[in-house]
Design brief:
With 150 residues, this protein is of the alpha+beta class. The chain is 25% helix and 38% strand. It has helices at 10-27, 32-35, 85-94, 114-118; strands at 2-6, 44-50, 53-63, 68-76, 104-110, 123-131, 134-142. It is globular. It binds coenzyme A (COA).
């Protein structure tokens, strides 16, 4: 059974950071001192559990005075990919009550994952750029729950 919820405890947060380290540092060679940053202390972190075991994570940071929510550090353990966990992590973020009034969800997709986000309604904009040695595209999606006008 898959459960997605906000990371509430220190132990939850440690599990999120462990998954990120395994995926971004271990698999993708991102330096640990880039992988963890000062935004972690203000972010809302999410954890995905499969039968109670931590298998995925993502974080959200508010931007533009709360008008946008920037999704990042989306990671699912390698052996758990392809079962809809990443999709459910993004859906859980988009449905979070506290994010109901943000106008846009933003993210910087690794280019290889652009189609994963496109399937979920995200549109790419701007040129491809490099971050931590990995090609990325900016992507965004309008929050269907927001009643705010542009
Ligand atoms: C990208 C990632 C989070 C996807 O997680 P996942 O749990 O495997 O994805 P899901 O099983 O929920 O896939 C949802 C849909 O996207 C598709 N998809 C998943 N990864 C994809 C990819 N890299 N490219 C294209 N489509 C992809 C799936 O086929 C599925 O399609 P469907 O809904 O038609 O069946 C995962 O591969 C991962 O952690 N990768 C390493 C870290 C990373 O690169 N993170 C992204 C940083 S921007």
């Amino acid at each position: 059974m898959i459960t997605i919820r906000a990371a509430r405890t220190t132990q939850d947060l440690e599990e999120c950071l462990r998954i990120r380290e395994e995926v971004f540092v271990g698999e993708q060679d991102v330096p640990l001192d880039m992988e963890r940053d000062t935004l972690d202390s203000q972010a809302l972190h999410f954890i995905a559990l499969a039968d109670g075991q931590p298998v995925g994570t993502a974080r959200v940071v508010l931007r533009d005075g709360g008008a946008s929510a920037k999704i990042g550090r989306v990671a699912v353990r390698q052996s758990n990919r392809g079962f809809g966990i990443g999709k459910r992590l993004i859906a859980a973020i988009e449905e979070t009550p506290d994010l109901g009034q943000v106008r846009n969800f933003l993210l910087d997709a690794q280019s290889h994952a652009q189609q994963f986000y496109a399937r979920l309604g995200y549109e790419a904009y701007g040129e491809e750029f490099m971050d931590a040695g990995i090609p990325h595209r900016h992507m965004k999606k309008r929050n269907g729950r927001s009643v705010a006008f542009d």
